[in-house]
Amino acid sequence: MSELVISDLTAEVAGRPILTGVNLTVRSGEVHAIMGPNGSGKSTLSHVLMGRPGYTVTGGSMLLDGVELSTLAPYERAQAGLFLGMQYPTEVPGVSIQSVLRESLVAAGRMGDDLYATLSAEAARVGLDPALVGRSLNVDFSGGEKKRNETVQLALLRPKFAILDEIDSGLDVDALAQVSQRVEEATSEWGLGVIAVTHYNRLLEKLHADVVHIFAKGRILESGGPELATALEESGYAKWVEAAGGDEPAPVAADTDPFADPLGL
Amino acid sequence: MSVDQLTPERAAALPGPDWLCAQRAEAAERFSTAALPDTSLEEWRYSRVEQLDLAAYTVEGADHVAVPAPATALGESLGRSAGTIVLHNGRVASVTLEGHLSEKGVRFGLLADSAVAVGGLSGGTDPFGDLTLAQGPDPLLLAVPRGVAVEVPFHLIHVIDGEGSLVLPRLVIDAAENSELSLVEWATSGNVEALVVPRTEISVGNAARVRMVSVNAWGSATNQLAAVSATVGQEATLRMSHVALGGDYARSRFDCRLVGRGATGQLSALYLGDGDQMHDLRTFQTHEARDTTSELLFKGALDDRARAVYTGMIRVDHEGRGSNADQTNRVIKLSDEAWAESVPNLEINHNDVKCSHATAVGPIDEDQRFYLESRGVPPETAERLVVNGFFEEVLDTIAVPEVVAVVRPLIAAKLGAVGGGS
Questions:
Q1: Considering only CA atoms, which of B3, B205, B14, B181 is closest in space to residue B97?
Q2: Which residues span the domain enclosing B165?
């Protein structure tokens, strides 16, 4: 049984406080949905957990089985069992899914001899064209292919915990069903713990959340069962945002792609 | 023989048929009256031309010409060839040509053996080009007659081991109407200071197909001032790729003139610099006829204090209706001290054309690196994957694919040295 314990976590981006005290504990096999309005800091939480450059932890802790993640480089966090399924997966020209997974598994000392077979099988499970595993990562992929690709990598790396940052956005019904079902199966297959960051509860139709958290103003305002997501669907976030008082923390360049390629490569 | 002895009289004394002597005489005359270029000229801006001292080099005699061991090994690694010429310090050390090609009228050997006039100026000359035209001792010819397609590549291997040598190789490629040929030109040198001034003239006849790859694998003290000028005829295709790895100061200028309707010119280059070396690349894509297409893709990576300059000109003449031109140059800087300049230029004289250019100089993409690291790939491996991936697109365009397997380990070795510190 693994445990990811986030306590009083605060963080800032470019000197601006975004996370204002996050408390969250996730155990193996659990699915936690984090739902909140745009600019609430949900994506920042994802990036802070993975250690993206530019995101600074200013207080609190995040422990994966007792290991403080903020002392680890991003690749070490991944090797320790953390996975971030990105909202905007980066295009990496000339680097294939297969070669990235190979390098990751080799670095972890987990490289088997059937990577391609496993990859093909996992691609088939989420409806990703197996030919894409040899192509450049995310280059010329459709929105759905990108999210399926993230899911295939998740399945190959078998992390202890996965943060899925709006994995459902832009997915059509079929893709959404395949991706959420694959993640759901992973929770029983190897006890994957999931933090699913999302706007919409349609993700939760196949990926059954044990706990739903309302996230606004950089922290969790309320937690409850799946019924909370349903209530949210009907009433919106206004109630929680108003109750928390004060101004919304401004979104970090909400309209710009945080993964925009400065080189335009 | 020192450079001040490179007089018109010396040029006139070189052996060859009358037409070749006439070409030499004209070029010698221009060279003797021209001033050497300096960085005030746009084409030489940012270059190291002013640091080159021609008088420090001498043209070697033919006394010690032999096929050096590296040439033999290289020939073997490049695989099968239709014919091979080895130049040792710019002098012909060996020539082979498959017999059946010789019977079909294919020529691969000394230009002086050609009874008919070929080559000559087709734009893109400068005093250095004239120097090689006038004084190059063993100019070469690769000629394929009309309708003959040679599928196996020709090999031209340069080896320089003479300290202080001034090497003046000239090559004329003449692909007659509806012919086909490919050439791999490989240049290597020992740890010697040398100046090489290669001059290549390419004529691609109507409906002909020419593919050429030049590899600069010079030693670190060799300087190069290369110029390639090509004319491409009606519905003909020229594909030209350059891989620049070595040299101290290595300049290559490519002029591609699309002179026949429907002509296509594709240029690609991959360049890697480290230490204090400098790559200097200039391109001219000139559309002189209707419905012509030019594509250019250059990519470089620089570490340490390495420098690179790229300037590219796309010109579409009044006759260039319906032309397509594309030009892309991208450079990754792997160190803060590396320096690169990239200057695209367009000169369009017709409305009905499509032109695009893209240029970028910057560090390795942080988002790409983070994406790979978030999958558990260690930083140095991630950087290597990103940089190698960056070059995959160019390797896909290498005009003679057989070369890719031979240059890959050289690129990996150079990138290993390049990426070592980060």
A1: B181
A2: 3-419
